[in-house]
Design a protein that fits this description.
single chain; 148 residues; mainly alpha; two-stranded antiparallel sheet; 4 strands; globular
């Protein structure tokens, strides 16, 4: 059985502790991106949409909607994550989690996968186009490994 975004969100919060909803969304995005590169597979099956505020997993958004800070996740089971998935998330947390949410948001806005999915939309236009896994794989595989 494959992991869901809820399994990943719960794992991130257990490892890192409370954070803003925006930061959690960006960490979910980068966990998915680097899983595609390092593990050659998606970490979770839910789609990532290119919202004006950056990459968003709608299923996670529905859980934290209206809350600034997220300190626990009501569903999900980190035991569904295998060792490779946990190693990937841990490496993402080591590199990205020390950054604040605005820095992470600015970074996603500067990167090709989000920008490609937003082509033709005004900066503040909502939009719910999917950020293609292929686009993420292509872009992040060309970057230096943030895990060191």
């Amino acid at each position: 059985m494959s992991a869901s975004v809820h399994d990943v969100a719960k794992y991130i919060l257990e490892k890192h502790g409370p954070m803003s909803a925006m930061k959690l969304q960006k960490l979910l995005y980068y966990s998915q991106a680097w899983s595609l590169v390092w593990d050659d597979r998606p970490l979770f099956n839910e789609r990532i949409e290119a919202w004006s505020g950056g990459p968003i997993v709608r299923e996670a958004y529905e859980v934290h909607k209206g809350r600034f800070k997220v300190d626990q996740w009501p569903s999900g089971d980190p035991a569904r994550l295998d060792n490779d998935a946990k190693e990937t998330i841990n490496a993402v947390l080591r590199f990205y989690a020390k950054r604040n949410a605005q820095w992470l948001s600015d970074l996603t806005h500067a990167e090709a996968p989000w920008k490609k999915a937003r082509v033709g939309l005004d900066p503040e236009e909502r939009g719910n186009r999917e950020i293609a896994l292929e686009s993420m794989m292509e872009y992040y595989s060309a970057l230096p490994n943030p895990g060191g």
